[in-house]
Amino acid sequence: LLGATAIEDKLQEGVPETIALLSLANIKIWVLTGDKQTAVNIGYSCKMLTDDMTEVFIIGGHTVQSVRQELGSKQLHCSSLPPSASGDMDSISGEFALIISGHSLAHALEADMEAEFVSTACACKAVICCRVTPLQKAQVVELIKKHKKAVTLAIGDGANDVSMIKAHIGVGISGQEGIQAVLASDYSFAQFRFLQRLLLVHGRWSYLRMCRFLCYFFYKNFAFTMVHFWFGFFCGFSAQTVYDQFFITLYNIVYTSLPVLAMGVFDQVITELYEPGQLNLLFNKKEFFICITQGIYTSVVLFFVPYAVLSDATQSNGVPLADYQTFAVTTATALVIVVTGFWTVFNHMFVWGSVGSYFTIMFALHSQTLFRIFPNAQNTLLQPVVWLTIALATAVCVVPVLAFRFLKLDLKPQLSDTVSVSEGRLGARGGSRRSGYAFSHQEGFGELITSGKNMRLSSLALANFASKHSSSWIE
Amino acid sequence: MVKEEQEESSNRPDNTAFTQQRLPAWQPILSASIVIPMFLLIGAAFIGVGVALFITSRDIQLQELDYTGDDSEHPCFKCRTNTEKCTCSMTFSIPTLFKGPVFFYYGLTNYFQNQRKYGASKDDNQLYGDLDYFTNPSTDCDPYTRDSKNMPIVPCGALANSMFNDSFSLSHTVNGVQKIVPLDGKGIAWWTDYNIKYRNPTLNSVFFSGTKKPTNWPKPIYELDTTDVYNNGFINQDFLVWMRRAALPDFRKLYRRITHDDYADGLPAGNYTLTIAYNYPVHSFNGKKKVVLSNVSWMGGKNDFLGIAYIVVGSMCVVMSVVMLIVYARFKFAEDV
């Protein structure tokens, strides 16, 4: 023996922690790799496979029958354990891992077996597919997309990952292996550990912002439009608008767009788990219904409070219609102030800027130069009764919401209040039997090397497995 | 290798607080120590304002006289079916001094001035004195644009055509003698309507020669007030008051003020007679007509609702804060146990 060479393909920094965190967030992680025997060691070194998993299944059959039989037996094994309450294969008690090699995968992806394969694979906490070709990577992703109502994300760094990156979200890692993956992807960054921030921070914020934005948008338009509905009862249903024409035009564009944008761009959440996004908790039919109901309640307040107050004429004769628009926008803006959960300097600027712009525009439009077009609103805003009515309507809209939220916090605390992150789960585990490096290492190869034969091992390297099938592995 | 680094630094996004979403921010957290005192404060403030409003409103005096004449015993009953000029008079008494300045309103119920087509039926250009629109009024006014002989109507439209034309006079019975209470009709319309929105062409009847008065008017527009040129034509105050559409079907419009001579301080207690030239028919749509006498304060006319609403909302805030305190205390103790 003159010497030995070893090639070290180190895992990036932070990969095990990232994977541990993502699996805590209820995200299933599959590894699809072209590597052979290193795949299992990689699985252990990045904490996908752990020592205390209940069982690790291997599917390595070469023929259709053997693959089918192996799949069947694994499934039986899984289902023989007491299932969880939901009865769904995904939440079976006990942790399993599945390792399947490329040639078995080719059989398992056939039409008649794919459903079985998917259900078995999804019952496992971790799935490693090794020796997969780029085409098979894409096929696996397609399979999941087809059979499961889940969002898929594919992350890779090499040219062989490009076909896989057509998952719902494709992430490319720009690194040593060139930039083909980056070019084909939706997001790209340089290190795998950034995935954690992408998903758990930006992804969560993005979902939250979308939901709040949508809710708020529907709310403000309902509040705005339903006032006309109530007014219809009092104007002979003649479709007379309550607000001034220009107000209607400017409402969505100028007066209320910026606070919404600010919310959509800057909103953040301090403590919440990832589950709301996965379970579609923040914007579903019930939430939508709640936000519509709030809009209707606001519109009732915005119409009937001024109606009741102004039924009796004020000092100037008649009831200027312009009053309604003052109330509507001021109250709606007041509500934005409460609903905006997270204030930055831009939020301040946008909210107060919108209110300010409303008053500026109104005074400008109602000034004497543009006078012939618009009736005068200067009269109305100079009267204390008007401001008192605005304050009353605002309070009646805002105060119940505040009280309700406060009571909800106490009576039905969210997950974030009750979950205490235990350090044991997230911290790095104590050393495992497997080393941090991915060696193609098993007993008995020393002889092969010393015997001088030129060989390539074409499958996984689990110690017990090798001892059973050593002969068939050697090409 | 150097090139790669340079490329990297040009692709690298800015590390500012804005782009990295690290803006300093404030998140209102609804903690008990903030919410409960805040509710108490709001509640107390609202109750305070409500009480002030209510007391002020209580001091405002209001007197309403319905003169539709639906009841057969009513003095104006005879005028209901009369198509010609009819005058009726009603007596009423004021128990205590009605503090001045007193405002005299006429009120209509079930009258939808806020109906869309009705309210849009006018020609603003005509009312601004633009002579082109005298000969050719806008089609917004249909069917009140031209009369049966196809002559243009000035002012055109349903809104102008339906102008309220009852007139009133008030007299005070003093020692058996009827003393007329002077009514002041100046400045009852919006300043901007009077000075800017409505303008007369030179009140030369030449300009009005090719035009006709609205169908239901007794006199043409340039004869509304022949004694005062500043109250004639389109800038007639009663006309302007009428054209300023009311928002709700039960409304009041200012008719006159009582501010002159002996009555500048108000209407003393006693008996009064209201004489009405009953011209305006309302019974076909079940409408009612009334006269309202009122004085005002800093918060406008009598408005009990505002005071009561403030008190109600204020007390509900206080009740809510107590409820929240109980809930919070219960949960806190439950947690601690």
TrEMBL record, chain A:
One GO cellular component, as annotated: plasma membrane
Localization in the cell: Membrane
* Keywords attached to this entry: ATP-binding, Magnesium, Membrane, Metal-binding, Nucleotide-binding, Translocase, Transmembrane, Transmembrane helix
Catalysed transformations (reactions): ATP + H2O + phospholipidSide 1 = ADP + phosphate + phospholipidSide 2
Q: What is its EC number?
A: 7.6.2.1
Q: Which residues form the P-type ATPase C-terminal domain?
A: 182-413
- This protein's name: Phospholipid-transporting ATPase
Q: Which organism is it from?
A: Poecilia latipinna (sailfin molly)
Automatic annotation (TrEMBL), chain B:
Its GO biological process annotations read:
phospholipid translocation
Q: Which UniProt keywords apply?
A: Membrane, Transmembrane, Transmembrane helix
Main location (coarse class): membrane
- Which ranges does the record mark as transmembrane? 29-55, 308-331
Source domain of life? Eukaryota
**GO cellular component assignments:** endoplasmic reticulum; Golgi apparatus; plasma membrane
Location relative to the cell: Membrane
Record-stated family: Belongs to the CDC50/LEM3 family.
Protein's name according to its UniProt entry:
Cell cycle control protein
